[in-house]
Amino acid sequence: MRRTVFAALAVSLIATAAVGAPGDQALEDVRILSADDMGGRGIETEGSVKARAYIAGRFRDTGLTVVEQPFTFTRKKDGKTLTGVNLIARIEGTQGAGRVIVVTAHYDHLGTREGVVFNGADDNASGIAGLLAVAESFRAAAPKHTILLVALDGEEIGLQGAKAFVEAPPVPLASVGLNVNFDMLSKNARGELYAAGGAPFPWLRTRVERLATTAPVSLKLGHDTDADGEQNNWTYQSDHGVFARAGVPWVYFGVEDHPEYHKPTDDFATVPQDFFLRSVKTVVAACRLFDNELDAMMQEAGR
């Protein structure tokens, strides 16, 4: 996950309309995926295999078929060839063939270093929990457009899973109307969640602004230009960046960096549970909104 300095932004007042109900399952997903026995979910480790099995099981419990997408790459620092595995689940849209929304979150983290487990509760067990909540929502009430739910591997080592997906997508890349990416949804002392992508896509900005009026968190736009410095521009700092380079419109939901970022203290005990659950409700509502209005959004975009 990306590095950025904290921005000095004021806390905004928000409405608290109900926009979804992930319940306690999202918390349980984070707790299990960030437990010590997952070993920090480093790529090509036993913890990674265990996390992948858990995520696949959750998809199946939701009634979805899961397809594995293995990939290999060469690690720059030592020339070692590593293997990762993406998980892909699909929910057919009621409108039949047409545009597709790809919802992504990475499940890998930093693993165990010198005997210390980097649990990655916020980064990115929280994003996977959001992905699973979106899956449950669309299974309960079918989407208009086909939804691909993709748990990506290898983000922490160069966005490798996203690269593999974009290089060999299960649908034509031209049919993907939007990539919605979740990376770090659970920790912000000011109760703020960011949606990046409004600057390059004005048609997206208007929808996010509307969502912000009823979101149960303080939903802010930003971190998608160099206005506050290159490191505060998140455009290419998580998996959505690979989609961006391929010409696919994208929106990224995440929090700013916090004291536990990439530290062993990023564990379940340090997750502010109320804020996290409200963040999950927000991203589920966002996916619903984008699905409902995707055709209009693409028309406005000239696609």
Q: Segments where pLDDT lies below 50 for 5+ residues?
A: 3-20
The domain count comes to 1
CATH architecture: 3-Layer(aba) Sandwich
Give the biggest sheet: 8 strands, mixed
User: The CATH topology, please?
Assistant: Aminopeptidase
The shape is globular
Helices and strands, in order, run as HHEEEEEHEHEEHEHEH
Number of strands: 10
Strand arrangement, largest sheet? 1-2-6-3-7-10-8-9
Distance between the termini: 30 Å
- What fraction of residues sit in β-strands? 15-25%
Outline the fold blueprint.
Elements: H1 25-33, H2 46-61, E1 66-74, E2 81-91, E3 100-106, E4 111-113, E5 116-118, H3 121-140, E6 146-152, H4 160-167, E7 176-182, E8 192-196, H5 202-212, E9 218-221, H6 240-245, E10 250-254, H7 273-301
Parallel strand pairs: 3-6, 3-7, 7-10, 8-9
Antiparallel strand pairs: 1-2, 2-6, 4-5, 8-10
Brief description of this entry?
It contains seven helices and ten strands. With 303 residues, it is an alpha/beta fold. An eight-stranded mixed sheet has the order 1-2-6-3-7-10-8-9, sandwiched between helices. It has a two-stranded antiparallel sheet with strand order 4-5.
